[in-house]
Amino acid sequence: MSTGATGTAGGVNLATIIDGHVGQGKLAFIDLSGPTPVEIGYDAFADRCARLAGGLAGLGVRPGDRVAIASDNSADYAALYFAICRAGAVTVPLNTKLGADTLAYIVDDAGVRLAVVDDANADRVPDTVRRIRFGSAEWDALLQADPAPALGLDPSAVAVQMYTSGSTGRPKGVLLSHGSQLFTVEQYTSGGFFMSTDERILVSAPMYHKNAMVQTKVNLALGGQIVLMARFDAEAYLRAVADHRVTSLTGVPTMFALMTARTDLLATLDLSSVRRMMIGSAPMTEGFFDEVQQCFPAAAITNGYGTTESIACFGPHPDGAPRPKIALGYPLPTVEVRLVDPATGADANPGEFWIRSRGVMNGYHNLPAVTAERLTDGWYHTGDVMERDAEGWFHFVGRVDDMFVCGGENVYPGDVEQLLERHPEVHQAAVVSVADELKGALPVAFVVRAAGSALTEDALRAWSIEHGPAYAHPRAVWFVEEIPLAGTAKIDKTSLAAEARARFVR
Asked: Domain 7-28+43-181 carries which CATH code?
């Protein structure tokens, strides 16, 4: 399937993925980020990208320069993202949920030359950097510039510098090339993911996160339509699905957990238009899969997987074998994979997932030692522990650095979460550990009950001992109304771990 041009004279450029759809009268965006919906066609969007690229060049932005974006989602965010790439500069999407000190570190580490911000996030960027606000006179001047062609670049040229969340230390700048991003788009448009050119996808996850931008790039490459929300809100999301007859959804499990809890609203909406769903970026359980399927009965649900450092990894089974509910997939034919014992480097099953492909990052910005630790002869060490079943499907087990030892037994929080969510009265669970002098560490759980449930801590703990290994049962259960999210819309395990330490009484 053609996804539009991916190259220019003398090289490639990620921004050209939309070129094949210009002049066909297609609708690109239904932008819900403002007070009223705005429809934007491919022609207008491409012209906007080209003029912004020309405007950036007029400001002195040169190939390789870093341009940051600190903003909620909008079609202008997407246009600027591609314009920066078009000009040969490097997009630095800023996670606006991070603290001021962390954002200042990122801006300094990346050497950001210019930042474009919205009103809500203008003060999140240090005033040592030149800032332009979306919608300002300076922004309008950029849009009046002469259109600039997409520069032809070497495939290894950096297109995007995305920073990891920094939950275990200072965030690292992941260097993603034009070639790696084009590889990802090619896999998702031809590997059995979004095979239709008439998709209407809803994007509400933050565009500074890979989930939202990968789906944006893929759908634009296919010539589909994107319904775009400024930020995620469960009720607004569900209403947008129904109102705009969305066909494809994507997001992280916590987003969908918040939606499935809205049983009153779900009963009033027609969600039958949804035919494909990809839920990824965090583990999910079979019980949760079934819960989502009940809400979207016509949808084919896929448990997706990818890391910032290497996004396209898995697809359908080459022999057409049915996919287990929460399997991550079967390795794409264009990638090499290994499962490795992180202690010995020998092949192991289960083991740490390693991948080598054209989609792997160049490395970490200004961190050669860390790059050398995570990249070996082109193999990226993901830090994710997986297991391969007899048919070749890969299943998530846990994180190498999340695993803790309880009384001599290895415990993966994801395994305990899956166990707890099998209980019919558990809507969602998040497991962390607390230190213990005798056992080393103990699992504890934060749990959202199913609607109408009066489940008690003692009953859930007894159930977990009966249905799983005794050493892994949560030594404390705290019932909460909602599991907190970090800036990437994943469960905020850092804040939960701190809360657990404060709450736990031995």
From this structure: 3.40.50.12780
Question: The domain at 335-399 falls in which architecture?
Answer: Roll (2.30)
Write the pLDDT tens digit of every residue in 452-463: 999 999 999 999
Helices (H), 202-317: 210-222, 234-243, 253-260, 263-266, 286-295
Task: Give the pTM.
Answer: 0.83
> Whose CA is closest to 85, among 146, 163, 152, 28?
152
Q: Are 83 and 132 in contact (CB under 8 A)?
A: no
CB-side exposure of 485: number of CA atoms within 13 Å? 20
Tokens at 317, concatenated? 């089974």
What is 404-503's CATH topology?
GMP Synthetase; Chain A, domain 3 (3.30.300)
Dihedral (CA of 333, 380, 301, 325) sign? positive
Domain ranges across the chain = 7-28+43-181, 335-399, 404-503
Burial of 154 (0-12, 13-18, 19+ CB in 10 A): exposed
- Mind listing the pLDDT tens digit for each residue in 106-116? 999 999 999 99
